[in-house]
Amino acid sequence: MRSRAASSVAAPSVAVRxxxxxRTQAQRSAEMRERILDAAVRKLxxxxxxxxxxxxxxxxxxxxxxxLTHHYASKDALVMAALEHVxxxxxxxxxxxxxxxxSIDSAIQSLLNDSRDFFFSDLFLxxxxxxxxxxxxxxxxxxxxxxxxxxxxxxxxxxxxxxxxAGVPGKLAEDLxxxxxxxxxxxxxxxxxxxxxxxxxxxxxxxxxxVADYLRTHGAKKARDE
Length: 226
Prior knowledge:
By secondary structure, this protein is mainly α. It folds into two domains: about 70 residues, Homeodomain-like (Arc Repressor Mutant, subunit A); about 150 residues, Tetracycline Repressor, domain 2 (Orthogonal Bundle), CATH 1.10.357. About 85% of the residues lie in helices and about 0% in strands. The chain has nine helices and no strands. α1 packs across α4. The protein is elongated. About 25% of the residues are buried.
């Protein structure tokens, strides 16, 4: 009795271990790529594009140089993959945020917060650096443009829908979306000339106040016109 009971308990444990082992083997490459990309993002943030070295990424990720080059054959390939990694995560986070707004005011504030989180990140400025160095018509420039379209357009669509659902008329919502994103992106680029966080904070609060005032005086009329 005791022997059979022990066997019946042991058998599932072996099966579970086998399943876990198979799952780990199947996911090993994906997990390694994720580790490499996370390390590459950290190194890009620390060193910038010019100081970025694949050997440093391998050390940071705890993988061999051979393992890294197996997944990413060159510095540029790794940089592009790291930037896409960041753009994708930011897009997923932005789309999730957009589903949680419940009023016009919270929609505008959340859009500002989400745009600032993305455009004021070091990785966005590195993407700008790569675009400038590579040029729009080079392979790197074209790939970066494709990455931007693939991940920024869906998040913009999500915020547009959030504004409309919150009560902003459609045409006005699109204009506010474009203006808000352009203002935040412009201030982010301004950091290259003069990084003034208190002023940026004040200007973004001013924009939010201007939007609120405009919607109070024009939003209802726009809604009737449409």
